[in-house]
Amino acid sequence: QKEVEQDPGPLSVPEGAIVSLNCTYSNSAFQYFMWYRQYSRKGPELLMYTYSSGNKEDGRFTAQVDKSSKYISLFIRDSQPSDSATYLCATVSYNTDKLIFGTGTRLQVFP
Amino acid sequence: GAGVSQSPRYKVAKRGQDVALRCDPISGHVSLFWYQQALGQGPEFLTYFQNEAQLDKSGLPSDRFFAERPEGSVSTLKIQRTQQEDSAVYLCASSEVPGQGYEQYFGPGTRLTVT
Predict the structure, then answer these.
(1) Chain B: residue whose CA lies nearest to A104
(2) Which of A33, A46, B50, B82 is 20 to 30 A from residue B105's alpha carbon, by CA?
(3) pLDDT grade, residue B1 (50/70/90)?
(4) What residues contact residue A107 under an 8 Å CB cut-off, 6+ apart?
(5) Which of B43, B48, B103 sits opposite A49 (nearest CB)?
(6) What is the reported pLDDT for A107?
(7) Residue A73 confidence (pLDDT) above 70
(8) In this complex, how many residue pairs, one in chain A and one in chain B, have their CB atoms less than 8 Å apart?
């Protein structure tokens, strides 16, 4: 079992839709949770990180962590075609700084 | 300021050749990481430097892979006697200080194709 599980998609939604992207993780010791966006043939771009449980909002993006169920979510409001990318969830190993990624979910927002 | 840069962006190598991939982290960043990303997968950790010290190389897949950061800034990932299974995107990331692994910034990657 992978430490971070993510549905690879693809997920296709119309412009303006609310998008929900999700991951689960296995180790309750993980404390930080990140979302990266990766456009085709580019490096991952950090969207936001969250510490422990709770919500964090940045513009149209909201990250949510539920430690009781080991569930991580990213919500995108008013999705735009420019949001079309692969979204990677990640956590940080509790005793090193190395990132542990999910597989990534490919999102397509069509006009 | 400038982000993480990597060169070359694309590399084609014949099986058995040696390759060297370069990473220029964000200026002043202490921590530097290398990841390998196979097609359709998330990045997988290879190795970690704190300044010039290689503190973790547990992700290097074989002894054909070698990384260095001799002056604590630029890093090079070297792959000897490349094999087809080495074909992947190699990503470099940096973070400002140790303990802030949650805030890593990635370069554009080097896409290696071994023929």
Answers:
(1) B42
(2) B82
(3) low
(4) A9, A10, A11, A12, A13, A19, A21, A79, A83, A84, A85, A86, A87
(5) B103
(6) 97
(7) yes
(8) 71
* pLDDT exceeds 90 at position B52: yes
A interface mutation test: which of B35, B91, B106 has the most A CBs within 10 A? B106
Residue B2 has a pLDDT of 83
3-class DSSP string for chain A: CCCEEECCCCEEEECCCCEEEEEEECCCCCCEEEEEEECCCCCCEEEEEEECCEEEEECCEEEEEECCCCEEEEEECCCCHHHCEEEEEEEECCCCCCEEECCCEEEEEEC
CA atoms within 13 A on the CB side of B6: 27
pLDDT tens for A12-35 read 999 999 999 999 999 988 999 999
A25 has a chain B CB within 8 A of its CB: no
C-alpha separations of A52 from A103, B22, B32, B99 in Å: 22, 35, 24, 15
CA distance A32 to chain B (A): 6
> Chain A closest CA to B83's CA: distance in Å?
22
